[in-house]
Amino acid sequence: MSQPVEAAAQTLAPPAGEPRLAESAARAAELARLLGGRRGERHLVALQDFPDPDALSGGMAYREIARGFGIEADIMYDGQISHPENLALVNLLELSVLRFEEGMELEGYSAAVFIDNQGTTTHLTERLAAAGVPTLAVIDHHDPQDALDPIFSDVRPVAAAATLLAEYLESGVLLTMEPANETHERLATALMHGLHSETDGFVHARPPEYSAAAYLSRYMDSDLLERVLCVQKSHATLRIIEEALRSRVVRNGFSVAGVGFLRIADRDAIPQAADFLLSEENVHTVVVYGLLDDEDGREVISGSLRTNKTTLGVDRFLKDCLGSDPRGRPYGGGRARAGGFEIDIGFLTGDSEDREQQRLKWALFDRRIRRKIFEAAGVEDLDEVCGADEG
Ligand SMILES: [Mn+2]
């Protein structure tokens, strides 16, 4: 009776599962041999400038692994952690990460390790090179970039860096995970959050992520994961989402909203507002932007694009739509389903005292950006969506 079902299950079983795990076990063994000869060293784990949960949990995993070999590791980034969910991750997991500050001495590190990046998305690369710190390892899942020359390199096209680190742990070669160990619980929770956020809540996960998640689920603390995921939004963020909702214009499935002036500290409200507007029926693509007041008086238009239209090439769309700055650098770019842009408004900066001036300035940029986006989206009646007063 069960015979045909079993036969069917066998033909459907993914054949690639085991070779991948065997490869991870081999890499883990190679890393173990390397770390075995480095007792007493201090390593720096370099994360991208805006570390996300995938990077943070990967750094955490390396630090735990290194500890077992008598190696201390500091996790560092040279930018900002501002998304509330990432801050919650750092706080709830009591994860100590260092933000690079001018004057910090990097010479004391024996080696650098790059996780979830290959040195091209962190300013630490140049600083480490200047300090003469050699690159020990690169563990990443992005396309190979060959910017570094590490002793150990594991760059494979899985959906998250956390997948690779979870597979290292599963091999048991680098660290023995124990069910009641609080540190291991936090680590498994962090890696699970990394997988979750990198795959948009497992919607874009593939077999390696599901199998890594199955392994991590044996150790993770689901209450803790729930607390990390259910971060409440700040009043400022809600106010910006409200403004986006009020000012949005929807045409041909494109929803475009300018939210006016906002503080740099509230910048992450822009992608959050974009995520929110994407949940409206019949909308497939959202662009939200606002005018940021930088600490040093610089003013920048900052925007986010979110789409669930698989045929929209986000990177191309933003580059075609917004063009480049005078030095030829594109104002915007992106990856699948998400992108962003920043336009320095240069000599129009300032006069923040003069309210009327500020209002006019915003109205000007708001109309121009909306016009460009709808133009690129192929919307016909631009006068109607952008205001007939523009020439
Ligand atoms: Mn990643």
Automatic annotation (TrEMBL):
<dbReference type="InterPro" id="IPR051319">
    <property type="entry name" value="Oligoribo/pAp-PDE_c-di-AMP_PDE"/>
</dbReference>
<protein>
    <submittedName>
        <fullName>Phosphoesterase, RecJ domain protein</fullName>
    </submittedName>
</protein>
<dbReference type="InterPro" id="IPR038763">
    <property type="entry name" value="DHH_sf"/>
</dbReference>
